[in-house]
Amino acid sequence: MKTIEWVNNRIRIIDQRELPLRLKYITIGDLDSLCRSIKAMRIRGAPALGAAAGWGVYLGIKNSKARDGIAFNRQVMKVADYIGRSRPTARNLFWGLERMIEASQKNKNKSVATLKKILFKEARQIMKEDQKACRRIGSFGAALINKRDALLTICNAGILATIDYGTALGIIYSASCQGKKIKVFVCETRPMLQGARLTTWELKRHGVDVTLICDSMAASLMAQGKIKKVFTGADRIAANGDAANKIGTYALAVLARHHKVPFYIAAPASTFDLNIKNGRGIPIEQRDKREVTELFFKKPIAGKDIKVFNPAFDITPHHLISGMITDKGIIRPPYIKNIRKIIA
Predict the structure, then answer these.
(1) Of 235, 242, 273, 327, which residue is the catalytic one?
(2) Which of 46, 77, 323, 330 is the most buried (most CB within 10 A)?
(3) Confidence of residue 344 (pLDDT cuts 50, 70, 90)
(4) 235 an active-site residue?
(5) Above 90 in pLDDT, residue 304?
(6) C-alpha separations of 332 from 3, 113, 115, 319 in Å
């Protein structure tokens, strides 16, 4: 099962708004539809958005009538800028766009037909690299898990957030393949319920012992000693190790520190943004108030005149993170030194 792929000259994605009730694929043949799908979180997850960026650029230029490489490059920049305005926080989205821009500019003296082929290959390579990176993350992270560990996660950092394996969930899949009988508690992840809708669906399909909890139960479980480790993904990691992830992640990190539970973040090198000094520089997406005031846009659960603050992400300070599991290895404190040593 792949979250995103190129099929019959179009982008094909799993419509994550339909899960868990049905597994539905949709095809996207134009740039506007892609950006709407990203904004509506029909496709989501930092690594998956990196792949969407690559295929999105190709989708936007494959029918280009540019006369030469210079004009073609201007079109690539325009398409990339448009895609980049869809969601601001996930570093991988912009990393994917930068990869496509660089591939085009580096070959600007070649024919337009050749440039199109180069960008197609680059988009495909982004996908292949994610598949390999997630499996390396899984391998490194599985070494941290003991037999019969009970783990906690939030949001969805699995197949649906990547191409076909996952970051935080990839670690769980790898540990399971090694025969470690583990139990996973999943926070529902309000307001869009990615934990309830997506992560439990994934884990159950893979035969993992999974239990859904409401977000406010995490402290109680930790106090009872029922959680041995916390694993989450990340959408952008600053040079000092501060990490943006789904809203509620910071709260889990604080609780984990209080209860002396190791708290790990799993992310590929492409999620790191060494141009941002610390978490204060990470842009945080503000989303539609209806995500909070309505139950999945269908049933009102608050008054129409209620003011809403709905950031999609929060920042976990680096000092609360026990380690960062990447495709290049596990990064430990001091993060400023070791991130540059391993990632740069």
Answers:
(1) 235
(2) 46
(3) confident
(4) yes
(5) no
(6) 31, 46, 41, 10
